[in-house]
User: Fold these one by one.
Assistant:
Number 1:
Amino acid sequence: MMNEEALTGGNSHSVVRVGDTVRRPTGMWTPAVHRFLTTLRDAGIVEVPELLGLDEHGREVLAFLPGEVGNYPIPAWMWSPTILQEAGALLRRVHDASVPIAHLPAHWQLPTHHPVEVVCLNDVAPYNMVFQAGHLTGLIDFDTASPGPRIWDFAYLAYRLVPLGEYADDHSPRADARTDRLEALIRAYGHPFEPEAVLRVAAERLDDLAEFTDRRAADTGRTEFIGHAALYRRDRDFLRGLVSEGH
């Protein structure tokens, strides 16, 4: 039996590395996620983990994606225009490849959002991205995927990577760069999203995420989730303020 190394950065499940594989607990949503991953790999998207089956403990086994995960606080180099462009383009490829399965019956962990256009990752953010040599090379953690509109996923990516929230650390882009970075991300994705619509949906997404995080706090007893939910609601109010001001 090979040694198991706990992987940091996640906050929902116990995820371990065993050799060149990652082992994750399964749930009722796992068959849908596995079909999603297989569909993406079959479409030539090698930036997502390869599914290798289940181990003797019933955990899913995925190929390990080497590189650095974008955990917070995000280093300055992860805010580069190159990564912004690569993230938008990769999300578009994932969405396009998911279209054939978006309307198929399946049990997902999170609710479906309408109108259904693609399968959304629902948590596409630096902490679920893998980087090598200053480039985005992988996406991880697909357990919260579910069908929805393209903008639902895109707006959350914009919230995390532009970024759109009120909070900023010493390395994140200045607030006056927000408009240009959002427009660059829209161009990279290649769909004519209106910036105001992105802000509006991002606020809705954060409202949804705050409620989900409250439930997780109640279910797990982890008090740090209460703080996360409060942050999401502050940023939700901040984004709604930007929309009302016409930004």
Note: Residues 40 and 94 are 7 Å apart (CA to CA).
Number 2:
Amino acid sequence: MPRAKSESAEKPRNLLTLLEIKNAKLPEGKAETTLNDGGGLYLVVATNRKRWMYRYGLHGKMHRQWLGEFPKVSLAQARKLRNDALNLVEEGKNPRIEKQVAKIAAQYSMANTFEAIALEWHAKELESGSWIPSHAERILKRLKADIFPIIGMRAIESLETRDLLYPLTLVTQRGTFNLAKAYRQYITVIMRFAVQTGRIKTNPALVDADRKLTHYS
């Protein structure tokens, strides 16, 4: 099915030069002025800054989206952002809303990595008074040394038994079997905490299989 044509799709593009942008001045008596690069992309020149703006029509209404300031966002980058936004418009999507959704999804993802949840668990245990400071410090140091570099940035819901087993395997290859047992305990309770706080439904550290983490108990 052909994509819908947006209003800015039919307009000429890439009209500005870098020299024009650098030399753009604010006319006397005006608060701002705009330079048209075509395809809905404008450079809005104000007293102390120059900002990129994308104007687009969607569902019979005009909208605008700010793409960043020049020169932090270069002319080439602004055009790419304009083209990306234009593709969304042609699919009937609102670029501003899609950007907000992506931002929320990224924040959720960062808040639900193994490392983020492990740190949340660690803070909770420390605050509860169940650990003495030296014990808490030792656990955190161990996690940072051998667990976080391997699975720390993984989304908690994406982790399977084999993923949790991998850092333990690396530790045992060094001959530090007691440390592997300690790590197995940490990982199991962190994943249990993830279940308790609604991040995942089941704890993959407790599955019944030959490769289960309790192999290191």
Note: The two ends are 57 Å apart (CA to CA).
Number 3:
Amino acid sequence: MKHVFIVGGTSGIGYSLAQLYLEKGFVVGICSRDISKISDSQKSNFQVFQTNVSNYIQLHETIESFISKEKKIDIFINCAGCYTEDVADSISYQQAEEMLQTNVLGTVNAFEVARKIMKNQQSGKIAVIASVSGILDYENSSLYTKTKRAVIQIAKAYHRALKPFGISVITIAPGYVDTQKLRNLNANDLSKKPFLVDEKTATNIIFNAIENDKKFVIFPSKMKWLMLSLSVLPSALLNVIMFKKAKWMKSK
């Protein structure tokens, strides 16, 4: 029986993936800072841990508990992420710190914990959820965009380092996915979210990417080509376009 562990697995894409892997017959472990997001009846289907991905020791102990019997993990997925808009609005130091801790340090922690176990196995898959916004590189991009760009670059480094040990690294860069979190952030109004993808479709795309060992997947395709087109523009022009886009999305 195969084992999958999902960081950030109590809500959104993470929980949707956990349900799908359970249906596929996997032993599924999930963790989150807030495990109250799922009910007791839902928890009974998984091995559930209250864990902060920003805390390496805590995450390591969690994974050790998950693999205590089988001493193996086939797939490790990091869905943890933190978002605060700082292009159209100012953000606090605490909000900035949380994004850096979760999106950047948490990504490194996840790779390191999974790497140590899978290196001994000489096999395994590590998947990380980045963002299509991380494709863009320009001076005044938001802190969120910069952290997600860092996630993509970190994953590339681990892909190269772990390939000789039979470990696959899969990076997923989704556009807008219709999750409850996205709805909460936008007062349930997603009218300004282009190329919106429903949660089930996103889950299936991610599952298939992991199953087929895809190195880097961007979806949906329309968002992929839009962002790739924008990425070739001069930084100064991209700054103006993206600032206006952020202001428009914040306007009523």
Note: The chain has nine helices and nine strands.
Number 4:
Amino acid sequence: MQSSMPRIGVIGTGAIGGFYGLMLARSGQDVHFLLRSEYQAVLDKGLTVDSWVHGMLNLNPVQAYRDVADMPACDWLLVGAKSTTNAELAPIIAKAAAPGAKVVLLQNGLDNEADLRPLLPDDLHLIAGLCYVCLYRTAPGVVVHQDNGLIDLAYHSGPAGDDTARAAVLSEGAELFRQAGIKAREAANLESARWQKLVWNAAFNGVSVLLNGGTKALLDNPASWQLIRDLMAEIVSAAEAQGYSMPEQYPEKLLKHTHTMPDYQPSMYHDWLHKRPMELDNLYGKALEKAAQAGCAMPKTEALLQMLRFIQDRYLAAD
């Protein structure tokens, strides 16, 4: 750990950024939040997390900013905005980052870091943050936290030139989360970790939109249960075709764990509900491309993506 307290910035203070940022700030860390439409609400009432794990939490006052030019340069940046906006976020990240800052993408899907890397200064560390957490936003500055919170950190690229240097960066980041009461792990292989998380995300996100249901309804019905199980199996096969090992009987383990969770609507469900662009390319398109290159067919995943594109095209065209 560095001797002085690092300054942490949150870009994209929605459900993910709001939850992790509030937890870090409540532990006494120096956290600064960049907001747009929710700026005034957070300035007036602070950030609130209704946590089924930690209780009702409120952070007020909040070090909040509407313009990145007003933010102090940050040593760590947590990017909670959706991957669909990464091209627009790149100059904001560069402006908010102190020299040599560590940028953690708290995003779903594949290739987020690879797509963003060419748009960032070379001196910034780029890290994947894989969040295992049930969250949703109910109002400006108000987040409901239903379950979990574990985060995996995996180094993608930057000035850390060898395994020892990369491990030191990840250890520093994991310790920041642990001080806030959040379980954090350092992942050795970024691509393997991304594919492993995709098994749950690709199945439940898209099917929740297509069938308009949360996890309980989807698991209670034999037809939707089987569809989710088949989609999970396709993702596992695609990962293994590329040489990434998956835990034994992984779909069954995920389904069993999901049965123990509170009823949950994944993030894509809320994007569909509020008619926002869905993360279709990073959750499905990239996976299909990589699977095809490895000679692995994913027919049900491909059909799911086609239906989701139809749904998204219709509501975006209506706006």
Note: Residues 192-318 form a domain with the N-(1-d-carboxylethyl)-l-norvaline Dehydrogenase; domain 2 fold (CATH 1.10.1040.10).
